[in-house]
Specification:
Layout lengths: L1 E2 L2 E2 L11 H5 L5 E2 L4 H6 L10 E10 L7 E9 L9 E5 L11 E6 L8 E5 L2
Antiparallel strand pairs: 1-2, 3-4, 4-5, 5-6, 6-7, 7-8
Length: about 120
């Protein structure tokens, strides 16, 4: 991801024939990079909730109208993953701003604020 002129990235080692084959079937594929690694993409100012923390490919909250990412992490303000309000990644969507498709969105009791902040990135 790119914030201002700073490019942030990391490598995810998954053994498939292509990125397309990882996401086309919409099956969840777990990664174990950890919340801090995903947060490094958006910088220290980027908010995220601290509960749930499901990460990988095709990650979707239990309530599918809430956070989802093609590649990234979703989180919640409690430890269940049913109604996640926080996401970092690429191919993102869901409540509360379905137009923010890349970067970060967090609502309700995230680590860097108490109400809402969106940080779109390229």
């Amino acid at each position: 991801m790119k914030i201002d002129q700073q490019i942030n990235f990391f490598v995810i080692n998954k053994f498939e024939s292509s990125l397309y084959s990882l996401i086309v079937d919409k099956n969840y594929r777990f990664t174990s990079l950890g919340r801090d690694t995903w947060k490094a993409l958006i910088g220290s100012q980027g908010p995220s909730q601290t509960g749930c923390n499901n990460e990988g490919f095709n990650v979707v909250a239990g309530d599918t109208s809430h956070a989802r990412v093609r590649i990234g992490i979703i989180a919640n303000d409690v430890h269940d993953c049913h109604q996640c309000d926080s996401r970092i990644g690429h191919g993102t969507g869901g409540k509360h701003d379905d137009t923010n498709t890349c970067g970060n969105e967090a609502r309700f009791f995230a680590d860097n604020f108490t109400v809402k902040r969106d940080l779109p990135v390229s």
